[in-house]
Design a protein that fits this description.
By secondary structure, this protein is an all-alpha fold. It is built from 23 helices and no strands.
Length: about 550
Amino acid sequence: LVGILLLGMATGTYSISGINAMPGVKEDPLYPWALMLLLLGAFTKSAQFPFHFWLPGAMAAPTPASAYLHSATMVKAGIFLLARMHPALSGTPLWFWTLLIVGGFTMLLGAISALRYYDLKAVLAYATVSQLGILVMLLAFDTTIAFKAVVVGILAHALYKGPLFLIAGIVDHAAGTRDLRHLANLWRGMPWVTVAAVLAALSMAGIPPTFGFLAKEFLLDTWYQTAEHGERIFGFTGMAAAGITGAFFVAIAATLMWETFFRKRAPRETASIHHAPSFGFVFAPMILVVVGAAIPFLLGPLNKLLFLPPISAIAGEPVDTYVSLWHGFTPVLVASLAAIAAGVAIFFLRAPLRKALRSLPAKLNGVVIFNRINDAVYAMANWVTRKVQGGTMATQVSIIFTAAVLVLIVAMVQIHPQFDLVINWTERPLLPETIIALLAVVSALVTVRVKSRIGAIISLGVVGVTVTLFFVFFSAPDLALTQLLIEVLTVILLVLVFFRVKPAALPPLPISRKVRNIVVALAMGAFGFLLVIFSSGIQ
């Protein structure tokens, strides 16, 4: 929110199209601050490292919520923000390196971590974290191929990850568990679920000619074109990282399908199907996987309808490009096939790899780090509370009043350093005004000097009545009535309260506290006086 406000201050508009069309945004001094705050919001929303842990933690939600919110749609809100603001904010080293490093690390972390877990939803959640890292990393670039990779990646991921989450819920409902150590041979009792799962898993693994394969091709092609344009070491390094991620996606998809549906027995007690789902129950994920399987063969008719508008929006100008499934026998295709072969190898080596990942110390877990930060914040809050609100009521009130005075002074200096007031100082108060003012001052002095509590309450009520008389004198009967009612109620309540509270002899105040009270009292008097004067007379 603060980043958006800073961006609005820099551009003079809060319209996204207006900001994208505004020249010179990146030269504004507020740009770095606005960008970093917007990136912080987008990274936390879209589960980027080190904020990635919330997404697997949200898997405790019901499976439809996980499928819709935490996998396919809501979690991509940060990605959408970055893509929508790309024309205005991209093209600087700060943008490029922040998105590249954070997105690239999240991509690898999510893909590798997914193999560590046995919960179906946890595995899918970490794969989602990896895909979100891929999208953030791609948005660092300012090329058409990267924009195509983002658009195709978003849609392909939604059309295979949503069904996989729904299938995880179906399996949990049917077998009573999502633990892969208890699942095996489910294809016999749930054939239609298996068909939908296999189609979605093939797309997740990027097997030709699925939609996921096309997304992986564009990802690898983004890095390959970077290498072709002179940055060979940088481009091929990124291509290798993307290939490793693709290999782990193959291993994850193969692991989920084999251990859930096709192996004959589980390493632990094999769960049986207690409630086999009907075809109608499987119809929702089946629609998504069928749509995802059909799109790669309908790219021609869908190009202008489905792909060109979002690609042009990310580019900030009309883009004439074409999304096709086959790009020839290229180095990118070779890298894609190599990633599939490596993924198969990882699948067969998953047992020792899982053991190694689960042996990592808990300190590397984002949840542990977050909890420590959370505990530190609470400890600091407790310390501040003890220091600020741990003394007497007078001390607490003094701190609050002093802070209010300082805020007023800073605000007045910021609004108008010269304090030009338009006040007619030649006017003289009339006799009734003078009498009322003197009566208010005398009553206030009596309130703080009188020894009796009842006397102080009565004199305080007199102060309120003088304010009521001011409202009557200046023809404000509604305010006068309100003020009078408040004063009457206040006096009655104070009398009732202090009638029950026994008087106590207060110890004498030291000189330092008396000085403090006088300073705070004068400051608050100046606060009220200046607030009224400046709100009515400042230009």
